[in-house]
Amino acid sequence: MIEDKNPQRTSISEMGEFGLIDHLTNTFDIKQKSTVKAIGDDAAVLDFKSKQAVVTTDLLVEGVHFDLGYMPLKHLGYKSIIVNLSDVYAMNAKATQVTVSIALSNRFPLEAVEELYQGIKLACDLYKVDLIGGDTTSSDKGLLISVTAIGEINPNDVVYRSGAQSNDLLVVTGDVGGAYLGLQVLEREKQVFQVNPQNQPDLDQYSYIIERQLKPEARKDIPELLKELNVKPTSMIDVSDGLSSEIIHICKQSKVGCNLYEDKIPLDPQTISTCEEFNISSTTVALSGGEDYELLFTISQEDYPKIKANPNLTIIGHMTQESEGMHLVTRANTKIPLQARGWNSFDKQA
Ligand code: ADP
Ligand code: MG
């Protein structure tokens, strides 16, 4: 489905490891004051002065986390940065640096790795983070990418998963469920394409949800917005595995219960219409779909007036005593226990 726009194939082994690293990284510039030394020595050097540093890592494996059959390498590079920045923002921190490590099989020519790094650079530029290092090695089979993201934060501003209190409001940014449905559309089109390669799909009506899957964004704006509004969440997490499992993480770590209201869950119109087409419940998709990279947080009721009119934020429930349990309150006003089902075990028939 993705056309090979780059027919040239330069063998990486001709360049050598150092030539490759230099070729890939020499266009990256340094934007953060805290970056003292980036690429080029045995280690990078950072100086956060009186701030705390937050550090998070993700490993992405071809065939497990991504499929190059429909994921262009540029998008993959972009997304590999985004998923890590999302974890930094979920601590209420500012993302400042990343390291990128790759293992490549010999089926990848230089042009493929260049594309990957174009996506990485785009994300670094847009999110104003410095690429400060990494590692480059070969793999027997496939592509592995490991990204570590680093951020800075005033010690008083850090938000953990564990601070939610009974009666706090539960808030989510943006809308949820779209990325999972985008993946369903891409997988369906890939199968159609395998049967008939002449069949170029018309994906216009799915543009938003496909973008949510292939080119997600992290909520850099939310820690900034919360600061402006003078709101410090009591707990926060990013939505990578679906609302349900993230709510359960907050509840378990904070020792509280929760009522989540089905009719409050924010959905894009394209998510709703595609759910109808696939004959799946949009609530199930929102609860178990994942990869939305929105932020889910709790705030004290006192802060409600500060956030209530904000179009980025939707109140979807409230926290309760732990003994009351974790529930979805349906449109029909029945209570269903929340279950943790990440997208790996997601049942399409549900
Ligand atoms: P070492 O032998 O000490 O591991 P390398 O030769 O692997 O050093 O790396 C040289 C420099 O290039 C280091 O600053 C390292 O962090 C950086 N680097 C290596 N691979 C990558 C990569 N894939 N992306 C970005 N920087 C990299
Ligand atoms: Mg190395």
From TrEMBL:
Pathway: Cofactor biosynthesis; thiamine diphosphate biosynthesis; thiamine diphosphate from thiamine phosphate: step 1/1. The keyword Signal does not apply. Mg(2+) 3 binds at residues 42, 87, 238. Mg(2+) 1 binds at residues 57-58, 135. Belongs to the thiamine-monophosphate kinase family. PANTHER family: THIAMINE-MONOPHOSPHATE KINASE. Catalyzes the ATP-dependent phosphorylation of thiamine-monophosphate (TMP) to form thiamine-pyrophosphate (TPP), the active form of vitamin B1. This is Thiamine-monophosphate kinase. It comes from Galbibacter marinus.
